[in-house]
Write a structure and sequence with these properties.
The chain has 2 domains: 254 residues, no CATH class; 194 residues, no CATH class. The chain is built from 16 helices and 19 strands. By secondary structure, it is an alpha+beta fold. The strands form 6 sheets. Strands 12, 13, 14, 15, 17 and 18 form a 6-stranded antiparallel beta sheet that branches. Strands 9, 10, 11, 16 and 19 form a 5-stranded antiparallel beta sheet that branches.
């Protein structure tokens, strides 16, 4: 069992202010220590998926089952990224991982874990080397001194200049042959995807866009600490919600703020584009035409996303297009991607136009768990490797003669962060509480796009323009 020494923060800061030693490493490891001077950062982090990483019941259930099904070969593979400080502090009972038994310094991805990194030695599976000292690294040049800790500028933390390696090393996951018993599998590829885009180019600084520039962006002129001598710096304050797609499935701080942050980054990430096509590409927007006997086409693209869409645990994501075509009386003539609550889109509509990684075992049956994955059929929206590259995809829906009766079409994007089939498998094996299933909710991405015959152009293509 890991036990943290109680932190007498007020006394420690008072002593530091008198010129005595900085706070101890043990004290700095506790995230609540950071709240003394970085309260807003701490509050945002407290509701983030970084803070939730080891508490997530799906993670706990998958680790438990994975340890059992791999006969312990899973080892610290999951803990290494979801509770890295637990490993740093000597936790070794990986098969019986229980987050409630850990002190705050060892739960989730803590302030100290990120801000004490001195080197990154691998592009995947957590290649971080911590200094384990009293120096907190950050992306602000010429940091103001503090009585709490030593401060150091580190380009790894500079979202304007870094190469995203500090994020990438945990957000690219390669499952080794030692776990799956076959061969290495590049399961999560966000960092590799980003490196394949023009956003990663350091030769063109005006186009360079890092992980932090999107997921920690802030235009606020605000100080980064409540401490003497610290002044607001434009671009110095970085949000620490670090939102993506996931939200907490159990009671957790800042739930509403975290969900709002998810929508802030998710809503502008994908659009129905057109209708004017780029040179050599298909018509855009929503088109209802007599082509091929009567079809609806919808051209979609991710917008300014520095990786594939979706990304990360793309084998678990379910992102899809819902489309409904109506006649003048409001009767649906065609529906696709209309998915009842609690159902996976591929079950509700096998022909759904969706984006996620289809993962398979060696026998070509679906793989619900990463240690079973033998091969991947990736069907993601790609990010452009060069500016203005057309990486859009077009959905085609066969209408037949009914196309002439279509008066209105609505289209929207929907997202489930987790697949119900996987959750049901974990529930059936007794590793996950059944109540968790109902906490997975479908996210709506932005506002629906609406096509009407009255507003369509001569090619029967409609907004956006």
């Amino acid at each position: 069992m890991i036990r943290a020494r109680p932190v007498a923060l007020g006394v420690a800061l008072a002593l530091g202010a008198c010129g005595d030693d900085k706070l101890s490493v043990e004290e700095l490891r506790d995230p609540s220590t950071c709240a003394e001077c970085h309260l807003e950062h701490y509050t945002q982090w407290s509701g983030s998926m970084h803070a939730y990483a080891s508490d997530d019941p799906v993670f706990v259930a998958m680790n438990k089952r994975g340890q059992r099904e791999t006969n312990g070969a899973l080892g610290d593979f999951c803990i290494n990224c979801h509770a890295p400080m637990a490993k740093q502090l000597g936790f070794t009972d990986f098969a019986n991982f229980t987050p409630e038994a850990l002190p705050p310094a060892a739960r989730g991805i803590t302030c100290y874990f990120c801000h004490n990194v001195k080197d990154v030695t691998s592009t995947h599976d957590n290649g971080f080397v911590l200094a384990s000292d009293q120096t907190m690294r950050g992306g602000v040049k010429d940091p103001v001194g503090t009585s709490a800790h030593h401060s150091k500028y580190d380009v790894l933390m500079d979202s304007d200049l870094n190469q995203s390696e500090l994020c990438g090393s945990c957000h690219d996951i390669i499952v080794p042959a030692s776990i799956n018993g076959r061969a290495d599998v590049a399961l999560e590829r966000t960092f590799a995807e980003w490196k394949g885009t023009f956003f990663s180019s350091s030769d063109k600084p005006t186009l360079h866009l890092t992980c932090g520039a999107c997921h920690m962006r802030s235009s606020r002129l605000a100080p980064i600490a409540d401490a003497p001598g610290v002044k607001p710096r434009m671009g110095g304050f970085h949000t620490h919600t670090m939102a993506g797609v996931d939200v907490a499935l159990t009671p957790f701080p800042e739930a509403e703020a975290q969900l709002a942050a998810v929508h802030d980054i998710l809503n502008p990430s994908i659009e129905i584009v057109g209708p004017v096509p780029l040179a050599g590409t298909q018509p855009g927007g929503i088109c209802v035409t007599p082509q091929d006997g009567g079809i609806i086409t919808v051209r979609v693209d991710s917008i300014s996303v520095g990786h594939s869409w979706p990304s990360g645990a793309a084998q678990d994501r379910r992102t899809w297009l819902e489309l409904i075509a109506y006649d003048a009386g409001g009767t649906p003539l065609l529906q696709s991607g209309v998915v009842p609550a609690g159902m996976d889109p591929e079950v509700a509509d096998p022909g759904v136009f969706g984006f996620w990684d289809r993962t398979f075992k060696a026998d070509n049956t679906p793989a619900h768990f990463f240690w079973d994955v033998d091969h991947i059929d990736s069907r993601l929206l790609l990010a452009p490797s060069v500016p203005k590259e057309d990486v859009s995809k077009t959905a085609r829906f066969i209408l037949g003669a009914a196309w002439a009766n279509v008066e209105r079409v609505t289209a929207r994007f929907r997202v489930n962060a987790l697949p119900y089939a996987m959750l049901d498998d974990l529930i059936a094996s007794g590793d996950l509480a059944p109540a968790i299933r109902a906490q997975v909710t479908t996210l709506e991405v932005g506002a629906p796009t609406v096509w009407t015959k009255a507003t369509a152009d001569a090619g029967r293509c409609g907004p956006p323009r």
